[in-house]
Design a protein that fits this description.
With about 270 residues, this protein is an all-alpha fold. About 75% of the residues lie in helices and about 0% in strands.
Amino acid sequence: MADEVAESKTTKQNSTIDLATMIGLIAGFGLISSAIILGGDPLAFINPPSILIVIGGTLAVTSMCFTLKEMAGSIGVISKAFFYPTFDPSDAAIQVLELSEMARKKGVLSLQNMVDTLQEQPFLYKGMLMIVDGTPSEEVESILRRDRSATLERHKKGASILRKAAEFAPAMGLIGTLIGLVQMLGNLEDPSTIGPAMAVALLTTFYGAVLANMVFSPMASKLERNASAEAVVSNVYLMGASSIGRQESPRRLEMLLNSTLPPSKRIQYFD
């Protein structure tokens, strides 16, 4: 049984690139770039002052809504939109059922040799370590619940920063456009300069719309989706650790897990 549990570690949370995010981002920018290239001079869409206003202004205004610590701490969380651990609730459920069955047959202390093999699942590792150390199951459940809530709060904070950036980017684009219009209207002596100046003024609105709708908003949605997926697996580990600590029947644990898992992820561990 110990070998089986160790083997189940291969169903761990592997870090992988989110292909959907990468493909969507590349395809979106690729389509816009193609339209720009086919329609004329691509260099006409590059304007450093406009880029400075939109990107720099969005970062500056967004940082006003949060503390520097929150902004710095969100970098790692935001990166999960591109590179994140994969979560399989079914594999997680089978893993805790194997541990539960082993604890039921040989006692909780029999899991002591298995704890180190769980380090790639920090949440489960923390719970099983406390159980092996003799921590009451109620305290284990309470600690894991707080840990889960803190993790979800970090993910929500990262998503909220991106949502704020998505709100401010179009506004900064509009501000840049107004600046360009004021500068253009202040120099009407040469009518031939009105068209190019207007084009440059509109670039900031273009930059703001692209950043908000093709970068910030989709990334925020992906973070929220990943947080929900991680919460399902964390809940499986929490229920499993609590059940093992109370030395409950693995069959009962299976029923409890299936009651919380999505229909497509429910398991049949016992015949």
